[in-house]
Amino acid sequence: MIRLRAPEIRLGDRVVLRDIDFAAASGTLVALCGPNGAGKSTLLRALAGLLPKCVAADPRHVAYLPQNARCAWALTVAEVAALGRIPHGDTAAAPIERALLACGVGHLRRTRIDRVSGGQARRAMLARAFATEPRVFLLDEPTADLDPAAAHQIMRLLHDTARAGACVIVVLHALDLALRYADRMIVIDQGRIVADGAPGAMLPRAAAAFGLAHGIDPTPRLLPPA
Amino acid sequence: MRRLLLACRLLLAAVPVLPLAAVPVLLLAAVPADAARIVSLNLCADDFLVLLAPEQVAAVSILARDPSLSVVAPQAARLKTVRADAEAVLALHPDMVLAGAFGAQTTLALLAQRGIRIERIGAPHDFDSIRAETLRLAALLGEPARGDALLAAMDRKLAAVSSRAPARTPSHALAVQPRGYTSGPGSLTDAVLRAAGLIDIGAGRQVSIETLAARPPDVLVQAQSPAFPSLATDWLRHPALAAIPRRTVPPSLLICGGPWTADAVALLAE
Amino acid sequence: MTRWLILGIVLLTVLSLGVGAAGLGVPDPLILWQIRLPRTALALLVGGGLGLSGAALQGALRNPLADSGLLGIGGCAGLGAVIAYYWGVSALFAPALPLAGLAGAGVGCAFLLMFAGRAASGPSLILAGIALSAATAAMLALALTLAPNPFALAEITFWLMGGLEDRTLSHVALALPPIALGCLVLLRLGRGLDALALGEDAAATLGLPVGQTLRRTAAGVALAVGAGAAVAGGIGFVGLVVPHLLRPILGERPGALLFSSLLAGAALLLAADLLARIAPMVLPLAQEPRLGVLTALLGAPFLVRIARRVAP
């Protein structure tokens, strides 16, 4: 469970978000959608306590993965996951191992992160978040730049994580992924939350925010692996 | 625009006229020797000029006022000083400029072009060459009697030392400069050490503190360290050298070879 | 690895005490205690400080090209020391020399970290460092020109290409406390530097005080590099090379490199200094090559290699 209320959120002099009253419950996967520059990432950073004047989140309970999360050094996948234990001040093997297996990178634990594929690297970064064993995940575009299969894998993992009781908040550009996996879709446009509800019902509002039409498209589509 | 062109043409026309106009003036000025105005741009030339012909000094170098470097510092304090800068020298209207054996090439070439007589002084490296250089400069400055007097005083000091030198075994001496440079055979320092009855073991190479500590000479001859801090002179204060006996000589006596160098011999022979 | 490095340091120390201009083998006590011991101790101290500083800077700035010499921090330290030394301050109060060195290094570190905070991209940071090195080299030459000692300018090679010859135990006494303190500060930063590998935002959400970690890095580097440069002049590339030598063996986790970089830096500089002492014995050299020249000869090819790997 996480909550944020703020009449406005500024970055420097610029007001990026207004009239924010946001709450998310445990056991849900929340997708934050909206056009570029709408304020999605800022909302996520505010939830993570990264903006000045925001209450710092407890690092043991909240894990944040920035957009294009990268590791500056070529650590092994297991070393990256172990960084998730820093808030607990330990290097307990069991949670690290669980995180590696949950994210499907157990077989890569001794491989350097610069020698694995983009999807595997993203999952290694997710394993870092999982190793913290947080109650809240704040993930900024975890599927960006990934091939469709890898994107589906990650979304399925997040869906299962939410089912297991975590609160997972994801910034997503891919609306089809949001429709398929999220429990709740929040549409942000020009700094305001303009729609909030079940993804299917929010689609018209999301489409409007992007300046897109919506409807039923009967053409063949790619589907996630069975 | 036309004015500018005119000005340029006038300037161009004036250029060849200037040296022609200057020549007769200079010829006139050079005739009476007593009235000569002489500028020295070199520390060693300062020493000779002030001792031989103080009346003719137009200016000396700035180093002449430094008592750690110059033997004529008290006199130089009342004299004008000048940098080796053609404009500054020309402003003094000298008849003759004394310079060191090397350096200041472009400045001197410019001054020579203006018709000023340039004399480069030698760097004497033993007492014979000191005698020759003193006589040459005394003649050049029109003061042969003062040159003879300086040399006579020098020879008296040297004779006093050599008559005093006892028959005991001479000491092995090493003259060290900052950072361990040593004077080799054929140098002025070598001549001074030998005249003082010491055996000079310097080879003209840099020595390390470790070499010195491992094979110490009987006596270490060093120039007095200047007051300002310098890594090179800190070298001489290394604790590993503390046990070696030292003789200190004012650097002004050894930097330039001249009649005053006999004082260094007298100091070392004490 | 740690065990091998310690073994190497012990071996090099024994060699270092047995090699010098006076010849090989155990020298007389005066030479051993007054000449070879200070030299050996300073090589270990200065080298250890430089190696550890390099590892910490690379970790904090997330840049494999970071090095106190390359970024101009060593130059700033030299400038501080030159001012304290040639204007006679250190003659009145000896600790003024390392203090001025670390003040200079502190200013350099602060400038670079401010710059890194605004534009963390690798190339721009390195360019800022190059600008800082050029400016400090010029100001150092200016300070030596303006020094009350007319011959001070002749000593510029010492400050730009340092060395350890003919140091005394009092130099060790001056350099030891700040370098030891700086190393202690840096050695405790392991977890923080690990977290910073993920970027400042992610590190902050891991509960790391990012600003404090960067400030402590700056303070530690200033202490270790500043005091080292004050007694040894400008010795570059040790901090650049050491972490790169260790990464293939120990992995790239910044925290895992800190202690080993301290040891390897000490070993590397002592080995380079030994080389400088042996060179005139086997080659027709009139004097020892400058230690800073040797480390630069060793480090420059490394820089080229790293630059080729880092370049996109």
Structure description:
The complex is a heterotrimer of chains A (226), B (270) and C (312). Chain A is 32% helix and 23% strand. Chain A has 226 residues and is α/β, with parallel strands linked by helices. The mean pLDDT of chain A is 91. With 270 residues, chain B is an alpha/beta fold. Chain B has two domains: 145 residues, Nitrogenase molybdenum iron protein domain (Rossmann fold); 100 residues, Rossmann fold (3-Layer(aba) Sandwich), CATH 3.40.50.1980. In chain B, helix 8 packs parallel to helix 13. The N terminus of chain B is likely disordered. Chain C contains 14 helices and two strands; from the N terminus they run H-E-E-H-H-H-H-H-H-H-H-H-H-H-H-H. Chain C has one domain: ABC transporter involved in vitamin B12 uptake, BtuC. With 312 residues, chain C is mostly helical. Chains in contact: A-C, B-C.
Strand order of the largest sheet of chain C: 1-2
Instruction: Specify Rg of chain C, calculated over alpha carbons.
Output: 19 Å
Could you say which overall geometry of chain C the principal axes of the C-alpha atoms support? Answer: globular
Radius of gyration of chain B: 23 Å
Parts with pLDDT < 50 across at least 5 consecutive residues of chain B = 1-33
Average pLDDT metric of chain B: 83
Assign the CATH topology of the largest domain in chain B: Rossmann fold
CATH superfamily of the largest domain in chain B: Nitrogenase molybdenum iron protein domain
pLDDT under 50 segments of chain C (min length 5)? none
